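From: lab user (bench 3)
To: helpdesk
Subject: output format question, protein + 3,4-dihydroxyphenylalanine

Hello, I'm new to running complex predictions and I'm not sure whether the block I got back is the full result or only part of it. Here's what I submitted:
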Amino acid sequence: MSLDAQDPTRTDFPALGISDSAGVGFLFEQLKARFLADLARAAAHSEWERVRDHWSGAGGVPQRIAANWVHQAPDNLRPLLFRERENLISFINIRLMTTQPLKQLGIVNAEQVAARFRDLRNIFDSEIERCIDEVDLGIDKTAWLGRKSGVITQITENWLKTSSPELKPAIGKELNSLRAHIETTIEGRQQKISAAAESAALARERVDLSLPGVDRPIGSRHLIRQTFEEIERIFLSLGFAVVEGREIETPYYNFEALNIPEHHPARDMMDTFYLDLPPGSQPHLLRTHTSPMQIHTMEKQQPPVRIIVPGKVYRRDNPDATHSYMFHQVEGLAVDTDITFCEFKGTVEYFVREFLGPAAKTRLRPSYFPFTEPSVEIDASCFVCGGSGCRLCKFSGWIELFGAGMVDPAVYGFVNYDSKRVSGYAFGMGVDRLSQLKYGIDDVQLFFQNDVRFLRQFP
Ligand code: DAH
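Helpdesk reply: Thanks, we reran it on our side. This is the complete output you should expect:
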């Protein structure tokens, strides 16, 4: 809005398109600037009456603001408009009052000077009374003490400098005492406002010690995690270390170094997720088992090696009661110079008894894995029927637990171990399967649905 633009107070408030308090503040700032410019022009052309009528007379700006803005504003902006209008009125009146030289106002002696200053002081006092926060106070401070067009400056320019030498001392004295009064009053008000703000903040932030505490339900460890920890506890007690591996592997670690060459049928079972990488990059895949950590560990470390590897593995399986595209394994590897099949069997039997209970018997059944020779499946006597036959063990008396075997010498070749000097065993157990068996859970999907009704059963 330039100064020449049409007077905005003739426009109804809704048509101005202002919807927030910032917009209102800006609008009034512009009005004040407009008024000051008008006043300066008026002083130059002595159009005093015209300016006074326009800005404070009946039917002038304040009255139009009341009719066109305050009364037509939306409810949320009306109080603000009302307040801004009040401010504007005193802003205008004081300036009108202090723009003309005293002589023009008909003031010729010290008593009249004192009376004028008393009026000003009264206006100031009532204005400062209305200040309720720092923002108000800031506005008032500039209005009265502002260097460019504050009241004190105006008086200095328009009254003091233009006065007759006889009146100057009286004006100077009044001016100084008015300035001192304004400064101390603003200072005092400032302290009051900030003390009030402070005690309001204190009241808001006071801690009510009698309130009941916030009840934060403590979760429980997931059954899979509990099973991991159970398995770890057993092997830690046998001197194994727990190591974790990466979930993204190269085919070399996932297959080749485990003695599963490119076209080996064992790869079909592990048909898996390959990563979509830029052409020319080395292929990577989500590991299909924790066995690659056997290779990483032996590459880094000379025998003796005794590790278990808990972790997640991935296969392209369709989800059902016994399959999931992500599941959990614990790999085991022990390699030393004097490890016999007997130690292997003893370790496995110990684990089974610890995990399933002292009554559990262990059976080793011949099997095949490319990276173990001989390979076995570890079966446990059915812990539901004790071996006599039931639905869980499909009336065989035995339950298959996990695969294992003596490390195939070919694997040592990949990690530069001397296969004539060292020997060892490895195993890989499905943690989801072991949890299902031990806790009688018929659907592996329950592990991944995070239904608290399920989780709560295993606190
Ligand atoms: N990696 C095999 C799988 O995921 C499990 C396995 C079997 C691991 C025998 C072993 C092992 O270390 O000796 O099916």
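A quick orientation on your result: The mean pLDDT is 90. Let us know if anything else is unclear.
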